[in-house]
Design goal:
Blueprint: E1 4-7, H1 9-13, H2 22-33, E2 37-40, H3 64-69, E3 75-78, E4 83-86, E5 91-95, H4 100-109, E6 115-121, E7 124-128, H5 130-140, E8 147-150, H6 153-159, E9 166-171, H7 176-184, E10 190-194, E11 198-203, H8 208-219, E12 226-230, H9 236-240, E13 244-247, H10 253-258, E14 261-262, H11 270-280
Parallel strand pairs: 1-2, 1-12, 7-8, 12-13, 13-14
Antiparallel strand pairs: 3-4, 4-5, 6-7, 6-9, 9-11, 10-11
Length: 284
């Protein structure tokens, strides 16, 4: 019997235009209503969760979706597993952050390398400079309540004595990706995931799998009582921590090979269909 359902957001519960359908919301509500602990597991920071899940965030907006979704979830795995938060108790269940010392050192060595800088700090999405902030607001749209513009990331982290859940370095000039790789070779305690336009940098101890294991131990839930759904390489560690593994039709091949079930794509409500078929069917 499944007691905990961990669901990725982008590429899984959200379609290609970053929209969450009424069907997936209804199915998640039904799962929660039947006693399953629904856990968003995302690369986003806590305050940039999809706005249609407003009732589950630390912000209470009073919107229609807020009222419908109240009580939908209590725990959130954010920043690719750097943090697990109990939003009701306002407690951190697990964290694997980049230390302030390493964060400041990394930022210093990245100066002049043609990189745009963003960071997840204390549940907020910090972007350095107005141009990058404007781009972030366009990308996240209504989900960008947690986005903040800072003039100088080093100064902010130093002044506020911050650890960093995750950095995002955007490749602004030719060769900046190669330069970042060279810098990161000096930091064996950090890991990076690269896309064509930016890299995510995080602690070697941060992963969705480590976060899910920590949450399961906190709740006293066994591996065979956990199900998860995802689409990306960052969901592989979550698959290793789960008893039932579901890959989206649009998932990377590596994830499909590890899956117990493969559903249709996120453009066809694959996550909702999978929950209905493999999680809710026969569960009263």
């Amino acid at each position: 019997m499944i007691r905990l359902l961990a669901v990725d957001m982008d590429g899984t519960c959200l379609d290609r235009r970053s929209r969450m359908s009424e069907r997936i919301l209804r199915v998640l509500r039904e799962a929660a209503g039947r006693g399953i602990i629904v856990v968003p597991a995302t690369g986003r920071n806590l305050e940039c969760l999809p706005h249609r899940l407003a009732a589950g965030t630390i912000r209470r907006t009073g919107t229609r979706d807020d009222d419908k979704n109240r009580g939908l979830f209590r725990y959130v795995i954010s920043s690719n597993g750097a943090k697990v938060t109990d939003i009701y108790g306002k407690k951190t269940v697990f964290h694997a952050s980049i230390s302030q010392k390493d964060a400041l050192s990394l930022l210093e060595k990245c100066r002049g390398k043609g990189l745009g800088t963003a960071a997840h700090v204390r549940h907020r999405y910090l972007l350095q400079g107005r141009i990058l902030t404007a781009a972030g607001l366009i990308i996240y749209g209504k989900d960008a309540k947690g986005a903040w513009c800072v003039r100088d990331m080093e100064e902010f982290i130093s002044r506020n004595n911050c650890e960093v859940e995750e950095f995002q370095f955007y490749f602004v000039t030719p060769g900046s990706k190669r330069k970042l790789r060279s810098v990161l070779e000096r930091y064996p305690s950090l890991r990076a995931a690269y896309t064509p336009i930016y890299a995510e940098v995080f602690s070697e101890k941060a992963s969705k799998g480590n976060a899910l294991n920590a949450l399961a131990a906190h709740l006293g839930i066994r591996k065979d009582e956990i199900a998860c759904i995802g689409d990306g390489e960052n969901d592989l560690s979550m698959f290793a921590a789960s008893g039932v593994r579901i890959a989206m039709g649009n998932a990377v091949d590596a994830l499909k090979q590890k899956a117990d079930h493969v559903t249709v794509s996120n453009s066809r409500d694959g996550a909702a269909r999978a929950i209905e078929q493999y999680i809710l069917k026969g569960k009263s």
